[in-house]
Predict the structure of DUF2520 domain-containing protein.
Amino acid sequence: MISVIIIGAGNVASHFYKTFKTAETVSVTQWYNRRLNAIETYQNEVEITDDIKALKPADVYLIAVKDDAISHLSSQLPFEDRLVVHTSGSIGVHDLDKKLKRGVFYPLQTFTKDADVDFSTIPLCIETINKADYQTLKTLGEAIGCKTYKVNGDQRKALHLAAVFVNNFTNQLYRVAHEITESEGVEFEILKPLITETAKKVQDISPYMAQTGPAKRNDKKTIKKHLKLLNNEHHKAIYKLLTASIQKTHGRQKL
Amino acid sequence: MISVIIIGAGNVASHFYKTFKTAETVSVTQWYNRRLNAIETYQNEVEITDDIKALKPADVYLIAVKDDAISHLSSQLPFEDRLVVHTSGSIGVHDLDKKLKRGVFYPLQTFTKDADVDFSTIPLCIETINKADYQTLKTLGEAIGCKTYKVNGDQRKALHLAAVFVNNFTNQLYRVAHEITESEGVEFEILKPLITETAKKVQDISPYMAQTGPAKRNDKKTIKKHLKLLNNEHHKAIYKLLTASIQKTHGRQKL
């Protein structure tokens, strides 16, 4: 049995709490937040506290607060030499106070407040300073069904950055597509199966192999037609830059 | 029963042939291609020909050839007043020879040569010049399990353009993410669940509502960190442009 204390009350903290509660080999000893009202709903099923001095012993302290608050919070902890992890993609393990045994427990997924999360589909990136702690975190990750990966600080930062491309930027391309279809009064709905298929394709083959379309085959006629259709200068700039990017990747001449 | 003759031998033609063959209410009368060897494999199950003068009567002639060849091919057809459709997203219905009853039968999906296609997930965009022909094409689309949409020429062109954003450009963002993770020796694998989830999210909520991340919340510190991490000027340009695009959409100040 691994005992965990959760620190913070945001999306990530809440989703971890819920999955820890259902895991047979994990017990949640306490849940700390500096404002109690954010976690009051759970007071009948777990001990809650807003007093950092009242934190009990536990195998793992999981800090899931805003990036900017992690370092200061770790220095406030009223103990030494216990395993404390944060859950951030962009903060280093050394940003935790050095009096502690330190680690990172970073779930690479997008969490939505009210939607349930299936942890069995979430890759968990683990880093620790001590080797022995790595095994504890790996066991904890597996207890909630995650696939765990050993990822160092530079690698985690690269993943966090790459995640912005495949999540935020991709979603913005969906948004631009929505604006384009809306301007002609045609349903965005029609594009949804293509969005699904595009994401599905790269589960099995590399994005390089999956590429198709006018930019890849250097179909200047279609590219010209598309640029003429785009009357939004911003959309046009994105079209040009990503067309050039595809042509660079696939060894075509520049636009 | 609707009788169809297929013209062309590329991905789209082959996938349509296979699905028409399995549909109970569709019969494939003939398959034409200017080079017989491309369709020879099928000669025991369907009549094949490379002689355009030998085309038989049928309810629908489906032209699935390269965009540039559609217009000329339609003018070569040795008959008038029969229903001829092309399957292209970017070619107008009027590019077909005016001696014919003309229409468009455009499946909005990405077709891969060897992968089987599930037509029940494919939106089929239909346009016809005569109202009566519209019903024939709708029935044909439904016979192979497609959801059909009435889409005019301008709308179809907008969809074809928007498809480049959600398919080719999105795939290129996956590629950039692959390059970023590879440069740190970390597995692209780890990003795959996030790619799936990002595509899944916009099936239910709009891309506008689905957006998260540093650009949307104007988290300048993280954006600065990311730009510093990117040493590829091309990746940096994409990061800047799409961050500015998100900020424009969500009313944040410019980068």
Notes: Residues 90 and 158 of chain B are 9 Å apart (CA to CA). Chain B touches chain A through 85 residues (CB under 8 Å). The two ends of chain B are 59 Å apart (CA to CA). The mean pLDDT of chain B is 95.
